[in-house]
Write the structure tokens for this entry.
Amino acid sequence: MTVTSISPQLKQSNEVKDMDNHVNTSAKKSSMGNFVFLIISFPLGLFYLLITVIGFSLGVGTLVIWVGLPILFITLLCIRGMAEVERRVVSNLLRMPMRYQLPGQREPARGFLRRFGRILKDPYTWTSMIYMLLKLPLGIISFTLAITLSVLSFATTLLPLAYLINLFVTLRIG
């Protein structure tokens, strides 16, 4: 029985190549995920803001005639659901690990008013609402910068080609 051994230098160089390929691949995926996240921030922010503001305003406005209580409850559940969707988007596109279990889901609350009270007392609901309200202004900024800087870098890359075409046209005409 013979034992073959790989020289330590060859083994180390193969490990370095494997690591370089993995780093480059994950960096490409991460960059594209970051860009996609910046682009979809504006439409998602607009949707989140509309649902949050309309639902909360309608729920608080009709709370006097008790119709607003279920509307407010549904709106707060929607806000919590949108926050969970946003957590999954961030986790997948930005490659940031996050826990998926919502806080406060351990004990089942019986009855509508107890569930509603538990949701109202939960700080996760209110931080999610603040996030949903701030997502649009931040989404507008990130969308605008992503598009503007992408077009600017593309135009700057093609600037030497435009100069050569202009020089060629000037020499042919002139």
